[in-house]
Amino acid sequence: MISLKNVSVTFNSKEQDIHAVNDVTLTIPKGEVFGIVGYSGAGKSTLVRTINLLQRPTAGSVIVADQNLIQLKPKELRAARKKIGMIFQHFNLMASRTIAENVAYPLRKSGLTKPEIKARVAELLDLVGLSDKSSAYPSQLSGGQKQRVAIARSLANDPEVLLCDEATSALDPKTTLSILELLKELNQKLALTIVIITHEMQVVKEICHRVAVMENGHVVEAGDIVSIFTEPTEQLTKEFISTATHTDRALANLLKHPTLLNLQSDDVLANISYVGASTSEPLIAALSTRFGVTTNILFGNVEFLQETPVGNLIVVFSGESSQRSKAIAYLQSNQVKVNLINHQQKVIQFKKETKAI
Ligand SMILES: Nc1ncnc2c1ncn2[C@@H]1O[C@H](COP(=O)(O)OP(=O)(O)OP(=O)(O)O)[C@@H](O)[C@H]1O
Where does the signal peptide begin and end (predicted)? Predict the structure, then answer.
């Protein structure tokens, strides 16, 4: 559906050239929800704006629905753009027009008659759950409702692609979830291809099939959501993931209060993680019966990524050293990853870090 090949965007200024996007190649198939994450300034907005040529790349090609947008004449490009909807962080609604008029706006040159436009607007407002707000004005709506109107408007011309530029960043967590639910529904109902840019891994985790991580204009890592969450290779990706799984924060809290850990000489602290149908419970029970090793779970986070369960636990293994090693090998042979945590070193490091702050 979308193919970006060696796309670069350079902004020239007197002082310096800014390489906002640097040689990015990405393919997004039809019907996929694709996330682009990165810190502020990574180049996400610039990259996503090349998909509808709001930003013309300095180099590379942009192919959407088998058309190379860069080679299109202005009239052809206008037609192609109708098939690419876009929503923004601040909704961009017209304050002086009603909700129905806002949604009808993209249809003004569609060739539809007035009654046809009215029917289409009613259908779109129904799709986003706002049929009762058609005569209201944007100022009378909550942020979540305004984003629903923006979504209805972006769908007016039946697009095949929807670009979402930080679409939930101005919303509270509950409203964010409801907008993500709506996007998920539209993706499934309309086979809409969705590209979401965000700095929140939580958003990616909720809705995306695949994700790309950006830094300094480059895509540093990309992959399906389960692989990225369970086997990230880049440090930046790991940082983003820990914000969504909360494991790092839990570990920091435990290290801040070593009495909570209360480790004995035969104890080891570890972070264990697993993917897929196997749950940790029977395996942990087996460590006790097979090896005489007890497992104390200090923190647990189990969630579903695209219907695949992914578990992350912080545990203390207690038992005789050689039995502990056998128990850990047993977990590993059952596809459970075990990372031993050198807690003394971590506590020293943690104390240094907090002093530095
Ligand atoms: N029109 C422009 N002219 C000059 N520099 C620009 C322009 N647009 C973006 N930039 C620069 O390009 C880089 C990437 O910006 P971009 O907005 O794409 O990042 P981002 O990852 O979307 O960040 P944010 O999440 O803060 O929007 C930044 O250094 C930015 O200052």
Answer: none
